[in-house]
Amino acid sequence: MNDRIRTLAVIQHDSAEYLGLIEDHLEGRRIRFRYFRPFTTDGRLPGSAERADGLVLLGAGPWGGAPGPHRLPTFEPEVALTADALARGVPILAIGLGALILCVAGGGTVESAPLSFEIDLAERTAADALDGYLPERFPSIRYGRDRPHLPPAARVLAVDATRRPALFRIGARAFGFAGHPGIKTAMIEDLIMEFPESPPDPGPALARLRTMNAAIEGALVPTMTGLVRCLGWMEPDGPGPEPGSVEARSAPG
To answer: What does the pLDDT look like over 176-185, one tens digit per residue?
Structure first.
């Protein structure tokens, strides 16, 4: 049994965005997390010692990753931080804007795209995704701008209705979600109220999102099981079995 308590460094880019439903899944496994808020007056990014067990990159709202006036002010330092984490094998979970940061840190690029609020049903493209625990279909809710062009080394694990990456993997221990798998409706409502810029007519999408709580919560249960295994957050000596191993093939599909 592994009794060591893990601690993750979680980078926020606005007070409205946070781990959401993911918090309960981490706390239930005795995995601690600490939020870092570089957008605040005294905020900063985590140092190497503060992300020893994992780095989580969040991101929803009007900031993007493409060059221009909407680029996140800390985009470049966060890319450098993430590239260092990749090089050292630090487990990484990247969501939304965080997935753009992971993409660039891994050698990809970012394409400019307008701010949008999209509710989609992502489709798994690899049966062994997240050690076989990723649902065949799962809600993908994205509120943000810009699109990733993945590096050749990235592996797409799920796509949206237009075949764009909904979940990708870089290396053994870094995963990027286009949408937030643990989203709460209040997070989107706060982002709409806080910033003068918002997607056109978000009301219908918000109404639909309010009906999806059970689907989001249901898909998150196996997703978090697979993520925790692949990222090694419950293992004494690193991540769980590699996809394709005997143990991975025995996991539920």
So the answer is: 999 999 999 9
